[in-house]
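Methods — Computational structure assignment.
A single polypeptide chain was analysed. Its primary sequence is given first, followed by the predicted tertiary structure written as structure tokens.
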Amino acid sequence: MKTKTLFALAILLAAILVMPACEKKKEDTTKELTPDQAKVELRDASQEITTNMDNMMSTSAMESVQFLMQIMGNQSLKSTLKTLAFDSGKLNLAKVKKAFTPAAQRDDGVGQFGIYAFNFSIDDFELVESSANSLVLRYPANETAYNNQQNNAELAANNLTYTTITFEDTYWDDYNQTWVTETYEDYVPTNVNMNLKIDNQTAAQGNYSSTLTEDGIPTAVSFGMAVSPYQFQATLSGGGTNFVAGFSFKQDDVELMALNWNLVYTADMENVQTISGYYMAMPLRIEGSANFAAIDAHMRNVEENGGDYDLAFLNSQINMQLLHVVLNAKIGDIQFKMYTDPDYGDTYPDLAVVYGDGTYEWLSDIMGDTGYTFRKKK
């Protein structure tokens, strides 16, 4: 949602104070767009979201980090950001592990501490200086620097502290067609201060801190990063089985993306029971709640034991809608529809935006793969 100036806020408050009660109710009511209007606005909004993301990813800092992940053989930066920001419905330590592969398990030669430089002869990093509490990577900032064999970028992680945790990760083994649970013991960073320089100029700064229970459950997480003119902030807080996950992405003072999810976990902390809150990608906003555990259990039961999916049951476990923030208008409801995978031919429920006339479009086509998918993926 765009941040209003103090002057505009004062005008708004004054208008509310002098406005008759019936008029105030009218202003607060969300408009309902016709299906044709909703589809037009949705196309424009989707393009705006894509443009905002492309602009952010084209900054020298983000291109540099993307290239670093490429030469280290990791997943794409967009995929990592989505994993961290949008997979709130499955937020657990396994997601942290998948987002940032622990240094101890990497095969690129980079350890937890030390100063490493990219060696163009071996096409890999090598240790050039030891360190007790810092990790520094010197590398080519982009393809041009790589071709010129120039390490013109430096990513420094200082004040690094780690803790050892033990956790389980359950994943689908597509080859054996079964779910596999493995136990890991790993180092997880609890504090780090980051600084990225390109051609000796600061391009980005960030910090991360977390508090974990003895069995490795995060009770407080804070991550912030500034890449002019963008700022990122991600948080997680809570205790027991109740947590709140937040994320904000701004360009100067304009909020382009945000989420706030209330997460209620099962008693064993293995799965999310319910989620409620909102996710906003300007100018679109998804808000509502879902009984995640019931949906996930139904999906797994059909996938593992056969039978038919019950769309009526699934839709009774979700109450979400898609809104247009700027127009203060409802575009449609979020519901499950049957989807047929064009590559594999599998048919299963997936989330869609349903317009007032009953027509619909897949949510992932509009908002991207944002973690709202409750199905097993190939």
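Note: Confidence is low (pLDDT under 50) at residues 1-27, 75-107.
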